[in-house]
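Progress against Task 2.4 (sequence-to-structure conversion) is shown through the following example record, which the project officer requested during the mid-term review.
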Amino acid sequence: MATVDQLQAVLGVLKLAERLKFELRHSYTSSGRQESVAEHTWRMSLMAVLMEPHLEQKVDMAKLLKMIIVHDLIEAEAGDMLALDVLRDPSLGEFKQQREVAAIEHLRDQLGEPLGQQIYEL
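Structure tokens generated for the chain above:
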């Protein structure tokens, strides 16, 4: 059974996740509106579910969906960066990686054992 501290940590991460609704990506929807990270995450998750039956090689769908969700959750804290900017300036890529590592480590520490480590390993 979860402790009060563990449940509070989960609620803190859910609060962080809400920021994905407002964090805008450097990409646009087909209507020309800038896409939020939450919209991107939802669509990537749906794509994984819909494509799974067509894959020649089977995948662990639960793990894949967790990876999609956790990857984008990191952007709530670290932010998103335009891929072209990273290509133009490799130091931005290093900076992005440092921010993402710090964000996943913070998430791991916030959630504690064992959940935080499981999320970190994804």
